[in-house]
């Protein structure tokens, strides 16, 4: 498959945004180059919804990148948000699910190498300034603009919300704009499904700055550089791996469960006998190898092939069985996941410590967001009690 056709497939999955996707990918590559040139001047914000444990899609789409960037020293400030308020927009009747997964997500972060000394981990609802910003930004966005958001459209379908969309869910792209701008984030490393959210945020920033004066920072998305990581499919091969779809391999899953899932993964349904030629398109096992494997893995676990291209060629020619490829993928995944699993087990012994990290992080985040909110209110001239000119003006007006 050529590069061009691969990009077209990805954009087809991304709903009607082929031209804008390619433009965004270019901007994302330029952002990465800028980071390397000017280390230390940037602020990162990302987050995850506490709707379940984190899975390998999160890992390749965003988490692995966050840890690399955190350790690169290129960022001045890093904020990582557990988006509980956003999770409630489609889980209003299941607050317990959200509450129980706060700690799971925090443990997954720490297990992957997010370092609380370098990154501020916080809980969204503990920063009420974010909600206030959302309310003001809502005035800058039209209903029809929200209706056009391709990710929200497909999520509405996935959740059978067509006939009864909660208003909060419908407007969550606006609340994401608040999350990003409250921390003056310059850089948002996320999977491809977040592209429409970043576009929405940029529009809000432009509109706000045009109406009220230069106040908000215009953020840039950082997309995964490997195509397979933009939107990792679930083990069923059907759609994006997603907590809500139950097609995940979780970062914290046991060795035996990971192996079971890998061995049951979707491949090429027409590849029945070993000698049959196999297809790579839509073959989830190969997509995962694209996302995870490197030449070192071949040297270690499958030395008869130098790299993935050689393995793919053999599969396409015929004569290579699915079981062999799956066993290799299992080795690759276990190598990546076993240190994560071990670190998680350590942190699980110190839940009080993790709780303190979240509490302290939320306090730091609330201070930063309060500062931005006061700048926003000053720009909108709704800071009546912090603006001595307001009283003067009103006295004069009523005494003319
Ligand atoms: P939910 O089903 O509750 O929406 P989710 O699995 O989609 O959960 P989110 O918390 O919405 O996960 O996403 C968190 C981050 O992980 C985002 O940056 C998103 O782009 C990224 N991400 C999630 N799933 C994938 C995936 N399958 N491939 C690549 N990136 C992903
Ligand atoms: Mg999601």
Question: Can you put this structure into words, describing what you see?
Answer:
The protein has a 3-stranded parallel beta sheet. Strands 4-5 form a two-stranded parallel sheet. It has 19 helices and 5 strands. By secondary structure, it is mainly alpha-helical. The N terminus is likely disordered. The longest helix has 30 residues. It starts with a helix and ends with a helix. Helix 6 packs across helix 10, helix 6 runs parallel beside helix 18 and helix 10 crosses helix 11. The site of adenosine-5'-triphosphate has 19 residues, from helix 3.
Task: Describe the structure concisely.
With 400 residues, the chain is mainly alpha-helical.
Instruction: Classify the oligomer.
Output: single chain
| N-to-C span | 77 Å
Strand order of the largest sheet: 1-2-3
**SSE class:** mainly alpha
Rg over CA atoms: 23 Å
The overall pLDDT, averaged over residues, is 93
Apparent shape: elongated
- The count of β-strands is 5
Number of helices, counting only DSSP H or I runs of 4 residues or more: 19
Q: What's the SSE pattern?
A: HHEHEHHEHHHHHEHEHHHHHHHH
Low-confidence residue ranges: 1-16
Largest sheet: 3 strands, parallel
Bound molecules: adenosine-5'-triphosphate, magnesium ion
């Amino acid at each position: 498959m050529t590069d061009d056709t691969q990009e077209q497939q990805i954009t087809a999955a991304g709903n009607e945004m082929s031209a804008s996707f390619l433009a965004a990918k270019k901007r994302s590559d330029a952002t990465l180059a800028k980071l390397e040139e000017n280390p230390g001047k940037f602020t990162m914000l990302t987050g995850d919804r506490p709707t379940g444990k984190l899975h390998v899609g999160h890992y390749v789409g965003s988490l692995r990148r966050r840890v690399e960037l955190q350790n690169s020293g290129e960022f001045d400030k890093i904020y990582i948000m557990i988006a509980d308020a956003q999770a409630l927009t489609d889980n209003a009747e299941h607050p317990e699910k959200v509450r129980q997964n706060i700690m799971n997500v925090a443990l997954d972060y720490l297990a992957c190498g997010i370092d609380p000394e370098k990154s501020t981990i916080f809980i969204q609802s503990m920063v009420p300034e974010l909600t206030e910003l959302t309310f003001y930004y809502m005035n800058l966005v039209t209903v029809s603009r929200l209706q056009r958001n391709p990710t929200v459209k497909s999520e509405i379908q996935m959740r059978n919300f067509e006939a009864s969309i909660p208003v909060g869910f419908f407007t969550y792209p606006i609340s994401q704009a608040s999350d990003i701008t409250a921390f003056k984030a310059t850089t948002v490393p996320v999977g491809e499904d977040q592209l429409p959210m970043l576009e929405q945020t940029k529009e809000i920033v432009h509109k706000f700055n045009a109406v009220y004066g230069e106040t908000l920072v215009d953020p840039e998305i950082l997309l995964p550089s490997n195509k397979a990581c933009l939107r990792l499919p679930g083990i069923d091969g059907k759609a994006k791996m997603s907590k809500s779809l139950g097609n995940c391999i979780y970062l914290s899953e046991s060795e035996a469960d990971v192996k079971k899932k890998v061995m049951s993964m979707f491949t090429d349904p027409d590849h029945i006998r070993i000698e049959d030629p196999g297809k790579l398109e839509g073959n989830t096992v190969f997509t995962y190898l694209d996302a995870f494997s490197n030449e070192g893995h071949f040297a270690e676990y499958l030395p008869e092939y130098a790299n993935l291209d050689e393995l793919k060629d053999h599969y396409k020619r015929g004569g290579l069985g699915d079981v062999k490829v799956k066993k290799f993928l299992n080795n690759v995944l276990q190598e990546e996941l076993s240190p994560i699993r071990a670190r998680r087990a350590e942190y699980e012994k110190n839940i009080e410590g993790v709780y303190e990290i979240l509490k302290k992080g939320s306090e730091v985040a609330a201070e930063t967001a309060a500062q931005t909110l006061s700048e926003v209110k000053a720009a909108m001239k709704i800071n009546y009690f912090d603006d001595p000119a307001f009283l003067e003006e009103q006295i004069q007006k009523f005494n003319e």
